[in-house]
Amino acid sequence: MNEPHFRRDGAWVGASVPRREDPRLLAGRGRFVDDIALPGMLHAQFVRSTVAHGRIVAVDLDDVRAVPGVVAAFSAADLGLGDVTALLDRPPHEFVPTSMPVLARDKVRFVGEPVAIVIARDPYAAEDGVEAAVVEYEDLEPVVSDTAALADDAPLVHAEAPRNTLVDVSLFATEGIDDVFAEAPCVVRVRTRTGRQNALPLETRGVVASWDDRDEQLHVQTATQIPHQVRTVLAGCAGLDEKQVRVTVPDMGGGFGQKCVVGREEIAAAAAALRLRRPVKWIEDRRDALTAAFLAREQRYDVRAAFDADGHILGLDADVVCDMGAYSCYPFTAGIEPLMASAEMPSVYKVPAYRVRGRAITTNKAPTGPYRGVSRPQYVMVVERLMERAARELGIDPVEIRRRNVITVFPYTGVNRITYDPGSYRESLDLCEQVLRDEGWYDVRDSGRVIGIGYACFSERTGYGSGAFAQRKMQVVPGFDISEIRMDVSGTVSVTTGTMSHGQSHETTMAQIVADRLGLDIAQVKIVQGDTDRITYGFGSFASRSITIGGSAVAAASEKLGDQLREIAAHLMEVDVDSTELDGAGGVRLRDDPARRLSFAELADVAYLRAHLLPKGVGPGLTATASFDVAGDGTFSNATHGVVVELDPGTGGVEILRYVCVEDCGVAIHPQIVEGQCRGGIAQGIAGALFEQVTYDAAGQPLAPSLMEYKVPTAAEIPDIAIHHLETPCAFTANGAKGAGEGGTIGAPAAVLNAVNDALRGTGVELDDTPIAREAVYRALNSALEGTHV
Amino acid sequence: MSEIRLVELTVNGERHDLAIEPRRTLVDVLRHDLGLTGTHVGCEHGICGACTVLVDGAPVRACLVFAAQVEDADIRTVESLAAPDGALSDLQREFSAHHGLQCGFCTPGFLMLAQGFLAERPDATKEEIREVVASNLCRCTGYQTIVEAVDACAVRRREGSCA
Ligand code: FES
Ligand code: FES
């Protein structure tokens, strides 16, 4: 493919080159899971639980098997697979391990839980088959909220988890913290609930599994962010060696964390393919995606903050309860949300004293897993509310109180024992406020309309190395990445990465990194991702780790290969290796005599076709492998978001008039892509603040099973977003880059909520829950009006 | 079980004879019977617009239409936008230039929506474009760059016709 060659200062990194993914995606020639068709392929659908909590008395699939077009139907007993079990190495009072059977066995725990798999010649027949299934349940009392789950006489979702508690950790408790609160001149408190949300990738989950007799391998093509972990679990459940399973990932239509856990449907479909020795495809429909895919975000916070009279924070005391639904997700476990919130709540502020308890509660609702930002949208919202509340109480400007508290001297080690690398916390705050002032929004705010301005100031840990995850005591410890680079005879390279793009453009950005390290054109670099046969091991893409960790591994492998090329060139030119250098144009030259050079193609020709010319001790071929892990506690991107909203007293509606984001992700490999990540993230954050919520009735029946009820914002609700970049290069990564995937989602709910509350100033009402209910805004505005009449 | 019917479709100028169940939706026929997998399925209930194609020039949600209903129509899918040699159309190029796509799953739907709209309303304002873009869902971009891409295409086309 001919790429236009855009280079800034001779470097690929930092240039917004055209994305290499675009031509195929724009022409309709991408290849997503559902685009795959194999000879003899069959189609799967699932019989799913209609009750929230029940004992399975009988599963009768005889009528299913009689439906025309149906080829097979399996219950848990028929498939006989092992369970999916995610573990933390924590003591029993802190963590209760629970297993998720691939198909429900004795009990169902949420509406939508898969009970049987139906395999048919086409998806229509598979659905006919599902309708013919007869499953008999003995109803058990469902537990539909975390408060109900914690009640003394609550029914148990998992017999092994007393008080329906899967995780209960008190990670930090500064000595003397009670005295801090007792003596503080100002103590504010925020109690908040955030709604259950669906990450909702536009492409639902899906898999095509087939047995390959030639490779003696089960080939699973699936939309996943974590191909290697899918292989590990699948091999374990099905009793196969890992070499007997190959997981590959085609183009992916988003993931946002929902595809970052191992789904039981993937395993069931693969097991059916293994059993039938025929390819089986499962494509999740939107109804199933809305009711049975992994959800996130339903959390309850009760947090107090102590301040001195000048607005300096003295301490935080937090109780966090996360409603994780029916099962622990693999590999993260139900600990993912409470552990994240507990460890990182102090956020960008200097907090001297801290106590936190974090709990994961199990209920009869669809299970939860990671979703873009993981807990940070919630705790940032809480901490930013506390700042605003203290500012109000102490009569300090809300931006000024943040200014007094943000970390400004780096590296800074917090009360949470995390060391933050340098960032621009203060600068981003100042700039964001300045932009809104310069644009005149403060004048508009004071003009009599119901307008508010809100901010959120935050950091996000992005390069989580093994050390950070080991601290959580996960039994599967992600962190490192391994990259292999191979130069072919023509002097172009293929590079593997254990990360997995699902829209973030790794084919472009990883190639930029390699091109700079080797002095190649990006058209001469091929990125290989999403294939467990070709990639040693990897942890996929989540926690904005791809560029920080994956990109650093790719850079390290490239450098190793560069050294090999120089060694061969030095030998051929009969000089010392130190007198050679890469020439930035696909060759090696002499430092002192740049005209003398050998191109990579000439060197590769020797390495492969005339190996007898290689230096002694250098074997044929040109490959290099490198791994990378983050030293220290990782990297921290940061940002400040500023929002202007107008409230409609007639409807309680919230309109966003202006959105400004000042972000710092270190060196931006591709600024346009970074902006794209910010905007997309902010849209999802606004969605959480104003629109989206998964709700259930008292019996545990989902109330938003279609996009008619689950309101995803459109271009009419998401405003244009101005983005300003600051750049604090990161010392821990090879490229100076920090992650950029999640910040938008983290900052938006807090900024929007603060703006709404600013607009409600004078009404005496403060709103702390999301999504912000129109009725609550309406009531606040109108009761205030009534109030003024009295 | 259900009877099979002969259906004759014209897609991207090519005629196809199909023997299908009457309940088969247009999007399934396009994707799975004709192998035109560029058109995507995001919801199957008419909300997301990922399945948008042109039927006699107008954007239509192919998940809400049975193939048997559009026998006499001219159906266009995303595969028809680029030139036979693969050169992208002006609209496609603007999507790339403005980073109007990330995962690219919603993209064919937005392209066909915009293609149909701009043909009808070449002098559409940016506000009108935003309103039309609001009929489809994108989960990645936050929409701004999609609106900008469509607007830039409209502006260029107008400048081109003025020149
Ligand atoms: S798939 Fe047709 S509108 Fe969503
Ligand atoms: S680009 Fe991913 S859904 Fe639009």
From TrEMBL, chain A:
Cofactor(s) recorded in Swiss-Prot or TrEMBL: Mo-molybdopterin cytosine dinucleotide
A GO molecular-function annotation: iron ion binding
Domain Aldehyde oxidase/xanthine dehydrogenase a/b hammerhead per the UniProt entry, residue ranges: 27-141
InterPro entries: Ald_Oxase/Xan_DH_a/b (IPR000674), Ald_Oxase/Xan_DH_a/b_sf (IPR036856), Ald_Oxase/xanthine_DH-like (IPR016208), AldOxase/xan_DH_MoCoBD1 (IPR008274), AldOxase/xan_DH_MoCoBD2 (IPR046867), AldOxase/xan_DH_Mopterin-bd_sf (IPR037165)
Domain of life: Bacteria
Keywords for this protein: Molybdenum, Oxidoreductase
Name used for this protein in its record: Carbon-monoxide dehydrogenase large subunit
UniProtKB/TrEMBL annotation, chain B:
PROSITE patterns: 2FE2S_FER_1, 2FE2S_FER_2
CDD domains tied to this protein: fer2 (cd00207)
Gene3D superfamilies cross-referenced by the UniProt entry: 3.10.20.30, [2Fe-2S]-binding domain
Pathway: Alkaloid degradation; nicotine degradation
Acetylation recorded as keyword: no
Record keyword Ion transport present: no
Domain of life: Bacteria
Record keywords: 2Fe-2S, Iron, Iron-sulfur, Metal-binding, Oxidoreductase
Stored Pfam families: Fer2 (PF00111), Fer2_2 (PF01799)
One GO MF term: 2 iron, 2 sulfur cluster binding
Residue ranges of every copy of the 2Fe-2S ferredoxin-type domain listed in the record: 5-81
Protein's name in the database: Carbon-monoxide dehydrogenase small subunit
Species the sequence originates in: Pseudonocardia hierapolitana
